[in-house]
Amino acid sequence: MSIGDSTTKDSKDEGDDDTSIITFSSILSKKDDEKEQEIESEIEQEETVLIILNYPIPELSPIFHHIWESSTIRIAADGGANRLYDYSKSMSKSKLGRSSKKEENEKEEEDLYIPNRIRGDLDSLKPNVRSYYENHPTHNVIIEKDACQDTNDLDKALQVVCCSDDDDLTTTDDDGGHSRHRLVDSYSRRVIIYGAFGGRFDQEMASFAALYKWSSKFNYQLYLYSDETCAFLIPANIHCHIRLPYHENNNNNLEEENMFGEGPTCGLIPLGCRCESIITTGLKWDLDGSMPLEFGGLVSSSNHIMEPIVKIFASHPIIFTAEICTKK
Ligand SMILES: Nc1ncnc2c1ncn2[C@@H]1O[C@H](COP(=O)(O)OP(=O)(O)OP(=O)(O)O)[C@@H](O)[C@H]1O
Ligand SMILES: Cc1ncc(C[n+]2csc(CCO)c2C)c(N)n1
Which reactions fall under this protein's catalytic activity (predicted)? Predict the structure, then answer.
């Protein structure tokens, strides 16, 4: 089996289909790049859903702001709404010193970060945060309780992204000046889960478990993010292409101010099971299919992205993770 000689792009078929390719692209790359735009249209992701978990959002996070701006639907998983509320407040406060129109600015900043929906068992949502979103004068925030104690709040949020055809989960077309709602099937949704690393280890592992449970429903476009790292699931027996901005031949970009992006340090982590055979190209320590990856054996940590496209073909599902490089 060689790698990277397939020509057919993203296919819904799973299994041994030699000709399908799944592409994983940077969430953080700027879209004004012509090449990026081409790739975006190739992937044909109709919308991006952001799920915010209950983990602190660092003050003035350019990464969170970028992900927020790239999303069309934003869902807070229970206590994730508290974090969003705190972030909005701290953003408006940090702007206070910079403007004479203090109150006006504060209001504008707060209104920048209103979720479409808050969902979970709602045991963590603070009463003042609930009432702020519930009574918002301009935004209709859906607050939805699901009391089930066998799934966590991330699962509850993913359930609604996957299965709901509610109005706030439909996309709007501009049809010659008229807005028209259109159902989008979960297969064409890209989902970014923000706040997935750090904090409680059981919650972190549950977020990885969500990749194994839900990725196939979103054509594997399900990504875990924090300000430091990202991760997604490489499916078994499908050619995967990973395009991330920071690789060995592109580190110059980081010399500019305020740049951030995924790479170049990366890892292949056989979390769910032993990965019997894996072939990669574009990494500093490539694998040729002869070495299994497994806990207790070889785990590919501290690897490096060397090429604009990393190609992977694995016999079993495996986690790909990359650092997020920031230059302030
Ligand atoms: N300490 C944490 N570290 C990492 N992720 C977290 C942490 N707390 C919560 N999360 C994530 O945010 C989601 C919403 O958080 P919330 O505190 O509302 O949790 P929950 O699912 O009700 O869990 P629990 O009640 O057991 O804390 C969780 O489902 C989980 O994915
Ligand atoms: C085997 C098993 N382990 C733990 C829980 C508890 N649990 C899992 S998700 C969740 C919701 C948290 O908001 C809770 C309480 C369970 N039900 N079953």
Answer: thiamine + ATP = thiamine diphosphate + AMP + H(+)
Query: Do 249 and 209 have their domain in common?
Result: no
Q: Are residues 244 and 175 part of one domain?
A: no
Number of domains the chain is built from: 2
Q: What is the CATH number of the domain that holds 307?
A: 2.60.120.320
* Residue among 51, 53, 202 whose CB has most ligand 1 atoms within 8 A, to mutate: 53
φ, ψ for residue 91 (rounded to 5)?
A: -65, -40
4 & 99 share domain: no
Rounded Cα distance, 187 and 158, in Å: 13
Using alpha carbons, list the distances in angstroms from residue 305 to 64, 73, 203, 227, 229: 23, 31, 28, 19, 14
* CA of 54 relative to ligand 1 center, distance in Å: 5
Q: Are 194 and 51 in contact (CB under 8 A)?
A: yes
* ipTM for the whole complex: 0.91
- Spatial distance between the Cα atoms of 271 and 200, rounded to a whole number of angstroms: 18
pLDDT in tens, the chain (328 residues): 445 433 334 444 444 445 699 999 999 987 555 455 555 545 555 789 999 999 999 998 999 999 999 999 999 999 999 999 999 988 877 765 555 555 555 555 556 799 999 999 999 999 999 999 999 988 899 999 999 999 999 999 999 999 876 666 654 444 444 444 444 567 788 999 999 999 999 999 999 999 999 999 999 999 999 999 999 999 999 999 999 998 887 655 555 655 899 999 999 999 999 999 999 999 999 999 999 999 999 999 999 999 999 999 999 999 999 999 987 5
Distance CA 273, CA 68 (A): 33
Protein residue whose Cα sits closest to atom 28 of ligand 1: 153
143 and 32 within one domain: no
Which residues constitute the domain of residue 18? 1-44+228-328
